[in-house]
């Protein structure tokens, strides 16, 4: 099975999942944190993400309206779009870091930074993430799909090809750790996204099993 999870968002390249669930539980107990119930935290997180998305959409609609009217985009709108883009990137990076810190030790993160330093000098994380979002959205739109079908196997081939930058730098331990992280996507998918849903991840696993 070659459906290893990608380091598709900025943070996974700098970190990895702790495979030892008991160590993870100990870390949580030791922190002394007593935050709100998960459902309340998830609602707050989703509301914040929705507000950010609404702001971005408002700016994009304004720009689209100007272009449709064959008008130039005023400097204020242009600057607002730039600021919104920067804000979104910052928020996504911060959200991934929160997930990383929850599952990975400081030592794990340092080990990953060292390993992922082997990526080609021209590697573009933002462009790479965009490719994951693209394939994730296309697979989601195609589901449900027979994992053994030609279409499913074509998606698996494309997925594995996209994994190459990660597999070039990752060792066996890292591949195992990152698969474990995506197996627990339900625990953190309300906070950030790798570019695809748990349903897409499960489909890719099934397609890999069908391939044999």
Structure report:
- The protein has 212 residues and is mostly helical.
- Helix content is 68%, strand content 0%.
- The protein has nine helices and no strands.
- Helix 2 runs antiparallel to helix 3, helix 5 runs antiparallel to helix 6 and helix 6 crosses helix 9.
- The radius of gyration is 19 Å and the shape is globular.
- The relative contact order is 0.19.
- The N terminus is likely disordered.
What keyword list fits this structure?
single chain, about 210 residues, mainly alpha, 9 helices, disordered N terminus
A few lines on this structure:
It contains nine helices and no strands. It is mostly helical.
User: How much is the radius of gyration in Å?
Assistant: 19 Å
SSE class: mainly alpha
**Span between N and C termini?**
7 Å
Topology, number of strands: 0
Q: Can you give the helix content as a percent range?
A: 55-70%
Topology pattern, helix = H, strand = E: HHHHHHHHH
Quaternary state, please?
single chain
Total DSSP helices: 9
Low-confidence stretches: 1-39
Strand content: under 5%
SSE diagram, text form:
Blueprint: H1 21-31, H2 38-68, H3 75-103, H4 106-116, H5 125-142, H6 150-162, H7 164-169, H8 172-183, H9 198-211
């Amino acid at each position: 099975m070659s459906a290893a999870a990608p380091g598709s968002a900025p943070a996974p390249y700098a970190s990895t999942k702790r495979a030892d669930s008991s160590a993870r539980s100990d870390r949580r107990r030791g922190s002394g944190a007593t935050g709100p119930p998960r459902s309340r935290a998830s609602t707050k997180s989703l509301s914040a993400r929705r507000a950010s998305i609404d702001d971005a959409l408002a700016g994009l609609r304004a720009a689209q309206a100007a272009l449709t009217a064959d008008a130039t985009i005023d400097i204020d709108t242009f600057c607002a779009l730039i600021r919104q883009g920067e804000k979104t990137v910052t928020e996504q990076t911060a959200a991934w870091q929160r997930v990383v810190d929850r599952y990975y030790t400081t030592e794990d993160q340092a080990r990953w930074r060292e390993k992922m330093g082997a990526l080609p000098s021209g590697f573009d994380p933002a462009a790479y993430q965009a490719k994951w979002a693209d394939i994730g959205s296309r697979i989601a739109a195609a589901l449900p799909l027979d994992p053994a079908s030609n279409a499913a196997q074509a998606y698996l081939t494309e997925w594995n090809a996209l994994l190459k930058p990660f597999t070039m730098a990752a060792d066996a331990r890292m591949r195992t750790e990152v698969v474990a992280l995506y197996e627990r996507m339900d625990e953190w998918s309300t906070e950030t996204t790798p570019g695809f849903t748990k349903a897409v991840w499960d489909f890719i696993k099934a397609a890999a099993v069908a391939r044999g």
